[in-house]
Structure formats: C-alpha cells, structure tokens
Amino acid sequence: MDKIHIRDLELYCKHGVYPEETFLGQKFLFDVTLYTNTRPAGLTDDLEKSINYGEISNQIKDYMSKNTYKLLEAAAENLCRELLLTTKGLEKIHLEIKKPWAPVNLPLDTVSVEIERGWHTAYIAVGANMGETEKTVQEAIKEVGTIKDTTVTKVSTLIVTKPYGGVEQDDFLNGAMEVRTLLTPEELLAELHRIEAEHGRERVLRWGPRTLDLDIIFYDDLVMDSDELTIPHIDMQNRDFVVDPMAEIAPYKRHPIYGKTMKELKGELHGELIGAAK
C-alpha cells in the first residue's frame, strides 16, 4: 500500500503524569505514516483524491491541544483512532510520538511510543434455532453494526440448515456478514459474546441449541489459535451453513490456510465442479 510520511512534526502540548507537565506543557515530535492508495491522485494531479498532509498535521495539532493524556500510549492510541475515523481513504496509520524532555532526571535524547493501527475486514457467521429465530438474527446483525468502531458492510441471505454435530434439535437459521472494524480479534469476540448474552445465549451443550450464535470466521488473513479464539474458525470448510453464506458475500475470499476461495470450498462441499465447461 502507498504511504504518505510526516516526519518530526513539532508541537507544544500538555501531556504527562506530573502536574507541571499538564500545566506548563512541553515539546513533542510526531512521526506519522499514512497508508492509502495514492494512484487516483497520481493519475489526476487532484488533491481531493489523496490525503492532505497539511490538513492532517493541523488535525493532529488541534486534537492534541484539546485533549490531555497522562500516558504517551493513550495519546497515541486515541490519536490514531481519531485519524482513522475521520480521514477518507486512510486504511492504516503508523505513529511515533517522541518526548524529548521526558522528566527522568537522567541524560537522554528522547522517549517515544510507536504504534500501528488500521482498519480490518472480518467475517462473522450468525445462527439461531431457538425462539423467534429470524427476529433474533436480524436484531443481532443490527447490533453488530452498533459495536464501537465497527460497520457492517455486507449481509448474506438467511438460510435454513440442519443441525451440525449430532445433537437432536430444531433446524437453524444461518447467515454471514462482513464487517470493517478497528477492534482486535479479542475485542471483537468480547462484543459478540456480549450480544449473544443479551439474547439469552447459554453455553451448556456443545453443538446444542442456542438462541444466538456469533462466530468470527475470518479476520483479514490472520491465522491464530488461543484458548479463547481460533481464526479461521475451526472446520468451517466442512459446514454448509458457513460456507454457503460466505460464498454469497465473499466468493473470492481465500482461506488463509487451504488457499481456496469460498466459491471453491462451496463447490467441493456440494460436489460441484467449479469452472467446469457448460
């Protein structure tokens, strides 16, 4: 991805742990890398098709003047969030905040905090087979769209599927959605669990009936396995209630482990020949 650099933007701000820092203020230096697509601007020579680094510099100045933080970590986190939420075309930001006059009573050049934050694309499967399933699923989709720093960008058709896992129970209503989010996988999972709990979800029987099920299927091309979360969702390639809705909204999304698209996985699951001659 293309980059626009702002180096050593010098601002006088009032951030720090000690009272004199927040009262008197001190010098800070900002190194910013903006990740965006500069090709439209390069082809047209039109500033409106790029990110105006002058406006960004002044936005940083205004934001850091109007807000006070004790920690550089908090200042960096909140500044990145502000820029990502308000800057059209900004996909990712790399930020270093330097504090040349850090009060440590020792000779030093500078202290700094450096972070990288950006937008992520996640895919979430939704399902229910207890109560008013369609109402619950539709409400859940809307509620996912209200999660902080998260937007639902695509929603699949809802389909009725047979239960998975051998537990005798009612059919499920299933679907999938694409979301754009600033949250980490763990933060997103916590929000999904909150929504499930608000709809009466109880984790009693594995593969058993549930009022609402929200699972992260993909998060960018991340591959992770922890006690709380596995991405891609385990065994999703063998579950038609996941693969079919995913093939509808993201047919060319590739499984980061198997390297196959959702369209290909759907074909294999249903015994179809993808790309066969008509």
Automatic annotation (TrEMBL):
<dbReference type="GO" id="GO:0005524">
    <property type="term" value="F:ATP binding"/>
</dbReference>
<keyword id="KW-0456">Lyase</keyword>
<keyword id="KW-0289">Folate biosynthesis</keyword>
<comment type="similarity">
    <text>In the N-terminal section; belongs to the DHNA family.</text>
</comment>
<dbReference type="InterPro" id="IPR006156">
    <property type="entry name" value="Dihydroneopterin_aldolase"/>
</dbReference>
<dbReference type="GO" id="GO:0046654">
    <property type="term" value="P:tetrahydrofolate biosynthetic process"/>
</dbReference>
<dbReference type="InterPro" id="IPR035907">
    <property type="entry name" value="Hppk_sf"/>
</dbReference>
<keyword id="KW-0067">ATP-binding</keyword>
<protein>
    <recommendedName>
        <fullName>Bifunctional folate synthesis protein</fullName>
        <ecNumber>4.1.2.25</ecNumber>
        <ecNumber>2.7.6.3</ecNumber>
    </recommendedName>
</protein>
<dbReference type="InterPro" id="IPR006157">
    <property type="entry name" value="FolB_dom"/>
</dbReference>
<keyword id="KW-0418">Kinase</keyword>
<comment type="pathway">
    <text>Cofactor biosynthesis; tetrahydrofolate biosynthesis; 2-amino-4-hydroxy-6-hydroxymethyl-7,8-dihydropteridine diphosphate from 7,8-dihydroneopterin triphosphate: step 4/4.</text>
</comment>
<feature type="domain" description="7,8-dihydro-6-hydroxymethylpterin-pyrophosphokinase">
    <location>
        <begin position="206"/>
        <end position="217"/>
    </location>
</feature>
<keyword id="KW-0547">Nucleotide-binding</keyword>
<comment type="similarity">
    <text>Belongs to the DHNA family.</text>
</comment>
<dbReference type="Pfam" id="PF02152">
    <property type="entry name" value="FolB"/>
</dbReference>
<dbReference type="GO" id="GO:0046656">
    <property type="term" value="P:folic acid biosynthetic process"/>
</dbReference>
<dbReference type="InterPro" id="IPR000550">
    <property type="entry name" value="Hppk"/>
</dbReference>
<comment type="function">
    <text>Catalyzes the conversion of 7,8-dihydroneopterin to 6-hydroxymethyl-7,8-dihydropterin.</text>
</comment>
<dbReference type="GO" id="GO:0004150">
    <property type="term" value="F:dihydroneopterin aldolase activity"/>
</dbReference>
<dbReference type="GO" id="GO:0016301">
    <property type="term" value="F:kinase activity"/>
</dbReference>
<dbReference type="GO" id="GO:0003848">
    <property type="term" value="F:2-amino-4-hydroxy-6-hydroxymethyldihydropteridine diphosphokinase activity"/>
</dbReference>
<dbReference type="InterPro" id="IPR043133">
    <property type="entry name" value="GTP-CH-I_C/QueF"/>
</dbReference>
<dbReference type="Pfam" id="PF01288">
    <property type="entry name" value="HPPK"/>
</dbReference>
<keyword id="KW-0808">Transferase</keyword>
<comment type="pathway">
    <text>Cofactor biosynthesis; tetrahydrofolate biosynthesis; 2-amino-4-hydroxy-6-hydroxymethyl-7,8-dihydropteridine diphosphate from 7,8-dihydroneopterin triphosphate: step 3/4.</text>
</comment>
